[in-house]
Amino acid sequence: MTRGVSFDWRDDLPIWKQIKDRLQGAIMDETYKEGDAIPSVRQLALDLKVNPLTISRAFQELVDEGLIEKRRGLGMFVAPNVAQSLLARERENFIKNEWPEILKRIDALGLSKKELLNTGGNND
Amino acid sequence: MTRGVSFDWRDDLPIWKQIKDRLQGAIMDETYKEGDAIPSVRQLALDLKVNPLTISRAFQELVDEGLIEKRRGLGMFVAPNVAQSLLARERENFIKNEWPEILKRIDALGLSKKELLNTGGNND
Amino acid sequence: MTRGVSFDWRDDLPIWKQIKDRLQGAIMDETYKEGDAIPSVRQLALDLKVNPLTISRAFQELVDEGLIEKRRGLGMFVAPNVAQSLLARERENFIKNEWPEILKRIDALGLSKKELLNTGGNND
Amino acid sequence: MTRGVSFDWRDDLPIWKQIKDRLQGAIMDETYKEGDAIPSVRQLALDLKVNPLTISRAFQELVDEGLIEKRRGLGMFVAPNVAQSLLARERENFIKNEWPEILKRIDALGLSKKELLNTGGNND
DNA sequence: GTGGTCTAGACCACT
DNA sequence: GTGGTCTAGACCACA
Lengths: 124, 124, 124, 124
What we know:
Chain A is mainly alpha-helical. Chain A has 5 helices and 2 strands; from the N terminus they run H-H-H-E-E-H-H. The first copy, chain A, has a two-stranded antiparallel ribbon with strand order 1-2. Chains in contact: A-B, A-D, B-C, C-D. The interface of A and B includes residues 28, 90 and 91 of A. Chain A binds a DNA duplex through helix 3.
């Protein structure tokens, strides 16, 4: 590996979406806390070796969803009271929408969800 | 009914892929058994209110994967010995690729595997 | 006037916003009716002498607001049941948000709203 | 209070413009009378939690329009004979430019002027 | 320094 | 044909 940053874009998802997801994750796990500044468009563009417009698009989505705020001339900041509500929202979405689909798939494959859940991690 | 549009295509997946998945599912659960004829391109196109080319694309993929066979002048037929091997292949793929991703997501959301186990159906 | 189309962009609003507003207006007054196709990105770009991306941006916003729908490979279409609800939404917004501001301004200027309203049109 | 941010800046207008409008209003309604001193750049910057340069920009505009005067070493003062002429100018501008737009909008929304008359305050 | 807008041109997948 | 994505580069207002 010669270059230390920015490889690994999946090609089934637009890059801007992947960046958005990554930032959203960083907000959820509080890598960026409420009120923190998000790296600038240009900085991220350099780091990720991506066109600034692509970063901009990701930011725009996050603003539309209320996760970050623009302070004019200063940059983007994590909005207040986001981490918790975001986590809650994602959890609900997972349980209501994604999990049933996964269960369907497990059933169709004739697999046992018990066994599957006992594999891998050991949280609870 | 004024609108002669489709029903419920997801817009994050190409329609041909969704059709392919649907057909593949029908073969796996033996709605179409080995040797059975698959509805014609034209018929499916009418039923699903989709461009025939789109159906063709789905068929082509299934042929390439050896799930169905073209018999000239007769149409498409489910290939022999497919259901089982297909199931095995899908299972392996699921366990190796999809399941780890799902586990990651569950952990990131801080969800309890136990609770998830008690949700949805009551298979094992 | 040598060129027959596309002049008059206001410079206090992004072009994409002006295009969005224009299209929204055309949907509200049913120039484009439910289910109608919207001119293509490229066509509009030519007509308005604007970059296709700029049109795209306007379309994206309209999709996000549910005013138009994308049919893959076919183009953009006016969503069902939009004209009425859109008008209602706009009316409510005007009365609740814009009108009070206008009244405030009229008061501050010491003008009479009665007289103002009797000027100009004669609907009711 | 952890957040040392601003209050309620609209984000469709530059902050300096909003400050200018606010000061202009205060002069028009004689909160600041002719010859009165305007709070200093630094003071306003502190009060409004805004960069001093932003205040300066607002002041500059007001000076350019002759509403306030700089007295070297003393600060900014409301210019003489301003309140009335300012009001007159604003009125004219409103009737000639803004009001026709508002009427257009009311018509487009199909709203009844009579109803609007009966909304809000009860001046004439 | 910040983000926003626009352009011209390329490439892609879908129908 | 359709829209979507990405790039490189320019210009702008704001703070």
